[in-house]
Amino acid sequence: MEVSPENLRVIFMGTPGFAVASLELILNSGMNVVGVITAPDKPAGRGKKLRPSAVKEFSIQHNLELLQPPNLKDPGFIRQLTDLRPDLQVVVAFRMLPGMVWKVPILGTFNLHASLLPQYRGAAPINHVLMNGERITGVTTFLIDESIDTGNILLRKRTGIGPEETAGELHDRLKVLGAGLVLETIYRLARGEVQPRSQEYFMEPGTVLRPAPRIQKDDCRIDWKRDGLAIHNMIRGLSPYPGAFTFLTGKTGEKVQLKLLRSTFEPSGHDQPAGLITTDGKEFLQVLVRGGILGITALQLEGRRVLETNEFLRGFSLSSFQPRFS
């Protein structure tokens, strides 16, 4: 089936700011967005007031038809969905769809994923790509099927990763790169110019797949016995959220939690214990690690704002703490 892209009836599904970039580009291209589906408002902040998603806020600003179903299998929602008569559904950072939803459009439903599938299937591909020290990543569009992130691939686009790039920085680049790929995918699907391929097609012999499960709190505590470069990759892969954390122990036994949010790594040989801190108390804070020296350039005391290292050292005395992280 070949359709003029501008005549497509498109439904968009997404929730966070990452998804807004794609929705905005689709809308600005002149396509007919007949509906937007996003998560119900959730309580947030100290007052636990209901907060709308970034996609909802954008949709309201642009007078888009908006649905917020608590249950995607609800018959009333399915009826609303089919009444919109979509030709195509686009999913960016939403949740797993039941078959009765993704099978509705004649052209199918495709998802944008922030990795080069089949690598890094799961909820946190940006974090895990960096934590594993990858130098290349990208974005993928694929047709949704019964499983998570396993459907036939439509298009992929690659990008390099900087040696000190953080998850926050990579997130912002990939949402722009991904929005462009989403738009290209819509045009090429409408014109019949893209051939879906199984994910196995993109796997070289002997390929080991790396998963990208949701980050848990236990994943965020730094183990100073690890290789120094791995710790550096962990710090940038968890920055700015949820943040890699460690502890300082006071000379009287109390503990203070710190998040380390930006670092550098310099390979070097030394015979000192891992986790040992060196600092001039003014400008630099370094940690001796296996295989080198970790320079800490941004950090955060629990409950405080993020500080550059020189700001932190001006307001926090390390002299009352043991000279190593734990």
Write a structural description.
With 326 residues, the chain is α+β, with helices and mostly antiparallel strands. The chain has two domains: 5-202, Rossmann fold (3-Layer(aba) Sandwich), CATH 3.40.50; 217-325, Methionyl-tRNA Fmet Formyltransferase, Chain A, domain 2 (Roll). The chain is 25% helix and 28% strand. The protein has helices spanning 17-28, 54-61, 75-83, 99-102, 125-131, 167-190, 228-237, 309-315; strands spanning 9-14, 32-37, 42-44, 49-51, 66-67, 88-92, 109-113, 136-143, 153-160, 244-250, 255-267, 276-279, 285-289, 292-301, 307-308, 321-325. Strands 5-2-1-6-7-8-9 form a seven-stranded mixed sheet, covered by helices on one side. Strands 10, 11, 12, 13, 14, 15 and 16 form a seven-stranded antiparallel sheet that branches. β10 and β11 (255-267) form a beta hairpin. α5 packs antiparallel against α7. It is elongated and about 70 Å long.
Attribute tags:
326 residues; alpha+beta; Rossmann fold; Methionyl-tRNA Fmet Formyltransferase, Chain A, domain 2; seven-stranded mixed sheet; 25% helix; elongated
In short:
This protein has 326 residues and is of the alpha+beta class. The chain has 8 helices and 16 strands. A hairpin with a 4-residue loop joins strand 3 (42-44) and strand 4 (49-51).
Annotation, overall tally of beta strands: 16
Can you tell me the CATH superfamily of the largest domain? Formyl transferase, N-terminal domain
Counted up, domains total: 2
CATH topology of the largest domain: Rossmann fold
Name given to the CATH architecture of the largest domain: 3-Layer(aba) Sandwich
Strand content: 25-35%
Structural class: alpha+beta
